[in-house]
Amino acid sequence: MEITVTTEAMERLQTISEGSDQTIRINGELVGGCGMNVEYFLWWDEVLPDDLLLHVDSFTFVMDKETLGYIGSTQLKVDYRPQQGFRLVTPEQILAYGLQVKERWGVS
Questions:
Q1: Residue ranges in 5-92 assigned as alpha helix (H)
Q2: Which superkingdom is the protein from (predicted)?
Q3: Per-residue pLDDT reduced to its tens digit, 12-51
């Protein structure tokens, strides 16, 4: 997996992290009934033993095997637009937009 973080996304991450090194989890979860779909989340988190680690500047992006399978691509771009929030984009599709990085356990 190759991850690219745009300049806009990196600037926003540096602003909201207050300059400290951080770990960001990219998480995909299956949701829905008959029409299954994947919702993506960005969380400040810790590295777990089976995580894939991707280092970009002072940030470590982590994801589990299920999320990697949901993404379905070897390339992922993390972008940020002030009106849309963070976006997760592969060469094939926009996976999610309107994302904010939140604390995993409920504190934003």
A1: 7-16, 65-71
A2: Bacteria
A3: 999 999 766 689 999 999 998 777 899 999 999 999 999 9
The token pair at 94 is 């926009």
Gap between the Cα atoms of 43 and 23, Å rounded: 8
Determine the topology of domain 2-103 in CATH: Hypothetical Protein Aq_1857; Chain: A; (2.60.300)
Residue 79 has pLDDT above 50, yes or no: yes
Name beta bridge partners: 96.
Answer: 88
List the end-to-end C-alpha distance of the chain, in Å, as a whole number: 28
Structure tokens at 26: 């990219």
List the chain domain ranges.
2-103
